[in-house]
Amino acid sequence: MTTGHMSGPVRIAIVGSGGIAGVQADHVARMGGTAEIVAAVDIDADRVGAFADTWNIPKRYTGLQALLEEAECDIVHLCSPPSLHREQAIAVLERGWSVLSEKPSALSLREFDQIAEVEARSPGSFATISQHRFGARAVALREIVERNDFGPLHLALCNTLWFRPDSYFGVVPWRGTWDSEGGGPTLGHGIHQMDLLLFLAGPWESVRATAGRKARPTQTEDFSTAVVTLAGGATAVAVNSLLSARETSYLRFDFASATVELEHLYGYGDDSWRFTAAPGADEGVTRLWESIPPGAGSGHSAQFASVVAALRDGTAVPVVSAQARQTLELIAAIYASAFTGAEVARGEITEDSPFYASMSGDRVPWLAPQGESR
């Protein structure tokens, strides 16, 4: 775990120079000198060269090992394909640096636990991008929930209804496969909303789910549904889809005295939220919501600011492993329930479960035993 205070800008290396890396580089450039990108890595020399030139990054490498041997930095941001995250995170942690990984941070609970095992003996921290946790209004709502100001939560909805055409899966070779992407919209897309659900509504206890492949030319599912029992007694219903022409990311929380809704696509602001007081509710409930001051929306920039602050203070980089694992475990349980037909409890997917090593559990009903389409 990182200890001690840091002087000077936080030194960042970015692994992978695709679209998301450019977004992150732009955020760093806007941080007023508190952080700087000192190196970039990509197996494509031309691409990493162009990326480094665009963002004035002094060092560029075509392999992670060269970065580890030749550069000095504080944190490595993994913007690489999901199947590479485990190996790369472990190498960086063994070097003694911190890691900030894009989602999914691992393709399975086994991979995640292998990373966490190395983290436990490393000076560095392992953190997962969970940008929706950092919007100002989400932070305020979490505090309201913790104080029980709106009364108990009864029902929550958590929908990631996106659209990805067949052509999307041909852009890069790792999309749509269990071995390379780890899962479909449940793992690769809905993870963002489900992570925010757990951040706001607390731990989960059990899940009963379905998943299927209706239309897309993939090994993985293109939709899933889940009914989740939360530890506080509420029920959450989650739908993840790549088949939805009108795209939306939607969360709804029905408390005893109010309904709070959030609708956006890839990131929210203050105007993405909607509040409705329950009939007969005390006027103080509405005043409380209206008293929340304007603030930053969700996005990587808000999390980056927290990451940089943690590194400068010598504390664990958010979002820490235990928090990220809870979300990943829920996703593994959704697949396990969908492919076995059984309700799955938190903690039930242990090392002897096929769903611990792979989200598919080698039980995908629409694939032959060899993993080829029927």
TrEMBL record:
InterPro entries from the UniProt entry: Gfo/Idh/MocA-like_OxRdtase_N, Gfo/Idh/MocA_Oxidoreductase, GFO_IDH_MocA-like_dom, NAD(P)-bd_dom_sf
Lineage of the species this protein comes from: Bacteria, Bacillati, Actinomycetota, Actinomycetes, Streptosporangiales
GFO/IDH/MocA-like oxidoreductase domain residues: 140-247
Domain Gfo/Idh/MocA-like oxidoreductase N-terminal: 10-121
Gene3D superfamilies, per the entry: Dihydrodipicolinate Reductase, domain 2, NAD(P)-binding Rossmann-like Domain
Taxonomy, superkingdom: Bacteria
Name recorded for this polypeptide: Gfo/Idh/MocA family protein
